[in-house]
Design brief:
Radius of gyration: 36 Å
Order of helices and strands: HHHHHHH
Oligomer: single chain
Structural class: mainly alpha
Number of strands: 0
Largest sheet: none
Strand content: under 5%
Shape: flat
Protein backbone atom coordinates (compact mmCIF):
# COMPACT_ATOMS: atom_id res chain seq x y z
CA UNK A 1 0.00 0.00 0.00
CA UNK A 2 1.12 3.54 -0.61
CA UNK A 3 0.69 4.22 3.10
CA UNK A 4 3.91 2.25 3.74
CA UNK A 5 5.42 5.72 3.44
CA UNK A 6 5.54 5.59 7.25
CA UNK A 7 8.54 3.23 6.93
CA UNK A 8 10.32 5.72 4.66
CA UNK A 9 9.55 8.57 7.04
CA UNK A 10 10.91 6.62 10.00
CA UNK A 11 14.05 5.68 8.05
CA UNK A 12 14.73 9.29 7.07
CA UNK A 13 14.49 10.29 10.71
CA UNK A 14 16.47 7.32 12.05
CA UNK A 15 19.50 7.29 9.71
CA UNK A 16 20.83 10.71 10.82
CA UNK A 17 20.27 9.68 14.46
CA UNK A 18 22.27 6.48 13.89
CA UNK A 19 25.13 8.39 12.26
CA UNK A 20 25.29 10.97 15.06
CA UNK A 21 25.09 8.23 17.73
CA UNK A 22 27.90 6.25 16.11
CA UNK A 23 30.17 9.29 15.77
CA UNK A 24 29.45 10.36 19.34
CA UNK A 25 30.33 6.87 20.55
CA UNK A 26 33.66 6.90 18.69
CA UNK A 27 34.59 10.31 20.06
CA UNK A 28 33.33 9.93 23.63
CA UNK A 29 34.04 6.30 24.46
CA UNK A 30 36.94 5.44 22.12
CA UNK A 31 36.03 1.74 22.06
CA UNK A 32 36.22 -0.91 19.35
CA UNK A 33 34.56 -0.05 16.02
CA UNK A 34 32.24 -3.05 16.29
CA UNK A 35 30.76 -1.70 19.53
CA UNK A 36 30.36 1.73 17.93
CA UNK A 37 28.37 0.09 15.12
CA UNK A 38 26.14 -1.68 17.66
CA UNK A 39 25.53 1.63 19.43
CA UNK A 40 24.71 3.29 16.10
CA UNK A 41 22.27 0.46 15.30
CA UNK A 42 20.68 0.92 18.72
CA UNK A 43 20.25 4.62 18.01
CA UNK A 44 18.67 3.79 14.65
CA UNK A 45 16.02 1.49 16.13
CA UNK A 46 15.46 3.80 19.10
CA UNK A 47 14.50 6.55 16.62
CA UNK A 48 12.84 4.30 14.02
CA UNK A 49 10.23 2.57 16.18
CA UNK A 50 8.53 5.66 17.66
CA UNK A 51 8.80 7.56 14.36
CA UNK A 52 7.22 4.73 12.39
CA UNK A 53 4.50 4.28 15.02
CA UNK A 54 3.66 8.00 15.01
CA UNK A 55 3.61 8.20 11.20
CA UNK A 56 1.44 5.07 10.89
CA UNK A 57 -0.98 6.39 13.50
CA UNK A 58 -1.32 9.66 11.59
CA UNK A 59 -1.98 7.83 8.32
CA UNK A 60 -4.59 5.56 9.91
CA UNK A 61 -6.38 8.57 11.37
CA UNK A 62 -6.52 10.14 7.91
CA UNK A 63 -7.90 6.89 6.48
CA UNK A 64 -10.43 6.57 9.29
CA UNK A 65 -9.63 2.95 10.21
CA UNK A 66 -7.95 1.18 13.11
CA UNK A 67 -4.61 -0.61 13.05
CA UNK A 68 -6.28 -4.02 13.28
CA UNK A 69 -8.56 -3.15 10.34
CA UNK A 70 -5.54 -2.04 8.35
CA UNK A 71 -3.74 -5.34 8.97
CA UNK A 72 -6.87 -7.29 8.03
CA UNK A 73 -7.31 -5.37 4.77
CA UNK A 74 -3.63 -5.81 3.99
CA UNK A 75 -3.99 -9.59 4.41
CA UNK A 76 -7.06 -9.67 2.17
CA UNK A 77 -5.23 -7.68 -0.52
CA UNK A 78 -2.28 -10.08 -0.41
CA UNK A 79 -4.65 -13.02 -0.99
CA UNK A 80 -6.44 -11.14 -3.76
CA UNK A 81 -3.12 -10.38 -5.45
CA UNK A 82 -2.38 -14.10 -5.80
CA UNK A 83 -5.84 -14.74 -7.25
CA UNK A 84 -5.37 -11.96 -9.79
CA UNK A 85 -2.10 -13.58 -10.88
CA UNK A 86 -3.90 -16.88 -11.38
CA UNK A 87 -6.53 -15.13 -13.47
CA UNK A 88 -3.88 -13.44 -15.62
CA UNK A 89 -2.22 -16.80 -16.36
CA UNK A 90 -5.47 -18.09 -17.86
CA UNK A 91 -5.29 -15.76 -20.85
CA UNK A 92 -3.15 -18.32 -22.67
CA UNK A 93 -6.06 -20.79 -22.59
CA UNK A 94 -8.56 -18.45 -24.26
CA UNK A 95 -9.81 -19.81 -27.61
CA UNK A 96 -12.43 -17.29 -28.82
CA UNK A 97 -12.61 -13.52 -29.10
CA UNK A 98 -15.86 -13.28 -27.14
CA UNK A 99 -14.31 -15.21 -24.24
CA UNK A 100 -11.22 -13.00 -24.42
CA UNK A 101 -13.38 -9.87 -24.17
CA UNK A 102 -15.44 -11.30 -21.30
CA UNK A 103 -12.39 -12.29 -19.27
CA UNK A 104 -10.71 -8.97 -20.04
CA UNK A 105 -13.78 -7.06 -18.76
CA UNK A 106 -13.91 -9.16 -15.60
CA UNK A 107 -10.20 -8.70 -14.99
CA UNK A 108 -10.50 -4.93 -15.51
CA UNK A 109 -13.25 -4.68 -12.87
CA UNK A 110 -11.21 -6.80 -10.47
CA UNK A 111 -8.10 -4.68 -10.99
CA UNK A 112 -10.09 -1.46 -10.49
CA UNK A 113 -11.54 -2.63 -7.18
CA UNK A 114 -8.19 -3.98 -6.00
CA UNK A 115 -6.31 -0.76 -6.86
CA UNK A 116 -8.97 1.45 -5.26
CA UNK A 117 -8.88 -0.49 -2.00
CA UNK A 118 -5.08 -0.52 -2.08
CA UNK A 119 -5.08 3.28 -2.27
CA UNK A 120 -7.88 3.71 0.28
CA UNK A 121 -8.25 0.66 2.60
CA UNK A 122 -11.44 2.04 4.10
CA UNK A 123 -13.25 1.21 0.82
CA UNK A 124 -12.72 -2.50 1.57
CA UNK A 125 -15.70 -2.49 3.90
CA UNK A 126 -17.96 -1.39 1.02
CA UNK A 127 -16.96 -4.40 -1.12
CA UNK A 128 -16.41 -7.25 1.35
CA UNK A 129 -18.61 -9.53 -0.76
CA UNK A 130 -16.21 -9.07 -3.65
CA UNK A 131 -13.15 -10.17 -1.65
CA UNK A 132 -14.87 -12.94 0.30
CA UNK A 133 -16.92 -14.52 -2.49
CA UNK A 134 -17.08 -12.97 -5.95
CA UNK A 135 -13.35 -12.92 -6.63
CA UNK A 136 -12.97 -16.61 -5.74
CA UNK A 137 -15.96 -17.51 -7.92
CA UNK A 138 -14.56 -15.58 -10.88
CA UNK A 139 -11.08 -17.12 -10.71
CA UNK A 140 -12.23 -20.71 -10.11
CA UNK A 141 -15.00 -20.63 -12.73
CA UNK A 142 -12.78 -19.08 -15.42
CA UNK A 143 -10.03 -21.64 -14.76
CA UNK A 144 -12.41 -24.59 -15.08
CA UNK A 145 -14.32 -23.09 -18.01
CA UNK A 146 -11.20 -22.45 -20.10
CA UNK A 147 -9.68 -25.82 -19.21
CA UNK A 148 -12.79 -27.72 -20.32
CA UNK A 149 -13.40 -25.51 -23.35
CA UNK A 150 -10.10 -26.47 -24.98
CA UNK A 151 -10.76 -30.21 -24.52
CA UNK A 152 -11.59 -31.97 -27.84
CA UNK A 153 -14.48 -34.36 -28.45
CA UNK A 154 -17.06 -32.64 -26.26
CA UNK A 155 -20.56 -34.10 -26.18
CA UNK A 156 -23.72 -32.08 -26.72
CA UNK A 157 -24.46 -32.02 -22.98
CA UNK A 158 -20.94 -30.82 -22.22
CA UNK A 159 -21.29 -28.01 -24.75
CA UNK A 160 -24.57 -27.00 -23.12
CA UNK A 161 -22.94 -26.92 -19.69
CA UNK A 162 -20.10 -24.76 -21.00
CA UNK A 163 -22.64 -22.37 -22.53
CA UNK A 164 -24.49 -22.19 -19.18
CA UNK A 165 -21.17 -21.53 -17.43
CA UNK A 166 -20.47 -18.63 -19.76
CA UNK A 167 -23.89 -17.18 -18.93
CA UNK A 168 -23.00 -17.53 -15.24
CA UNK A 169 -19.78 -15.59 -15.88
CA UNK A 170 -21.80 -12.80 -17.51
CA UNK A 171 -24.03 -12.67 -14.41
CA UNK A 172 -20.95 -12.63 -12.20
CA UNK A 173 -19.58 -9.72 -14.23
CA UNK A 174 -22.78 -7.75 -13.55
CA UNK A 175 -22.52 -8.59 -9.86
CA UNK A 176 -18.97 -7.28 -9.69
CA UNK A 177 -20.07 -4.13 -11.51
CA UNK A 178 -22.57 -3.70 -8.67
CA UNK A 179 -19.71 -4.17 -6.20
CA UNK A 180 -17.82 -1.41 -8.00
CA UNK A 181 -20.84 0.89 -7.83
CA UNK A 182 -21.26 0.19 -4.11
CA UNK A 183 -17.62 1.00 -3.52
CA UNK A 184 -17.95 4.38 -5.30
CA UNK A 185 -21.32 5.33 -3.78
CA UNK A 186 -19.82 7.61 -1.12
CA UNK A 187 -17.64 9.32 -3.76
CA UNK A 188 -20.68 10.02 -5.94
CA UNK A 189 -22.47 11.41 -2.88
CA UNK A 190 -19.54 13.76 -2.25
CA UNK A 191 -19.68 14.77 -5.92
CA UNK A 192 -23.37 15.69 -5.58
CA UNK A 193 -22.55 17.85 -2.56
CA UNK A 194 -19.79 19.64 -4.49
CA UNK A 195 -22.21 20.28 -7.37
CA UNK A 196 -24.70 21.87 -4.97
CA UNK A 197 -21.97 24.06 -3.49
CA UNK A 198 -20.98 25.21 -7.00
CA UNK A 199 -24.62 26.10 -7.77
CA UNK A 200 -24.94 28.09 -4.54
CA UNK A 201 -21.71 29.97 -5.23
CA UNK A 202 -22.88 30.77 -8.75
CA UNK A 203 -26.20 32.12 -7.45
CA UNK A 204 -24.36 34.29 -4.94
CA UNK A 205 -22.09 35.58 -7.69
CA UNK A 206 -25.06 36.37 -9.96
CA UNK A 207 -27.04 38.13 -7.21
CA UNK A 208 -25.26 41.53 -7.14
CA UNK A 209 -25.12 41.67 -10.95
CA UNK A 210 -28.87 41.21 -11.27
CA UNK A 211 -29.46 43.84 -8.58
CA UNK A 212 -27.21 46.33 -10.38
CA UNK A 213 -29.06 45.69 -13.65
CA UNK A 214 -32.37 46.47 -11.97
CA UNK A 215 -30.99 49.72 -10.54
CA UNK A 216 -29.73 50.75 -13.97
CA UNK A 217 -33.18 50.15 -15.48
CA UNK A 218 -34.82 52.21 -12.76
CA UNK A 219 -32.40 55.09 -13.42
CA UNK A 220 -33.18 55.00 -17.14
CA UNK A 221 -36.94 55.05 -16.45
CA UNK A 222 -36.53 58.02 -14.12
CA UNK A 223 -34.67 59.99 -16.78
CA UNK A 224 -37.42 59.30 -19.32
CA UNK A 225 -40.07 60.49 -16.88
CA UNK A 226 -38.13 63.70 -16.24
CA UNK A 227 -37.85 64.48 -19.97
CA UNK A 228 -41.55 63.96 -20.81
CA UNK A 229 -42.94 66.93 -18.76
CA UNK A 230 -40.37 69.24 -20.32
CA UNK A 231 -41.66 68.47 -23.83
CA UNK A 232 -45.22 69.12 -22.72
CA UNK A 233 -44.35 72.52 -21.26
CA UNK A 234 -42.63 73.60 -24.45
CA UNK A 235 -45.76 72.75 -26.42
CA UNK A 236 -47.94 74.82 -24.12
CA UNK A 237 -45.59 77.82 -24.43
CA UNK A 238 -45.78 77.62 -28.22
CA UNK A 239 -49.61 77.63 -28.14
CA UNK A 240 -49.60 80.64 -25.79
CA UNK A 241 -47.44 82.66 -28.14
CA UNK A 242 -49.84 82.03 -31.02
Amino acid sequence: MKYNISHWFASIVSIPVAVVTGLASMVAFDIHLVFDMFIAAGGFFAAYLPSQSYSMKSQLEKMGITKSDYKYVKTQLAEAREKIRRLRKNYKNVRTLKDAKLIYDINRIIRTIYTSVEENPKLFFNVQQFFHSNLDSAVNTIEQYLFLYKMPGKTKDEKVKLHETRISLLELKRTMQSNLSAMNRSTYHSLDIEKEVIKLNRKRADGPLKLNNKLQKEKVNLKKKEKEPVKANRGEEHEGRE
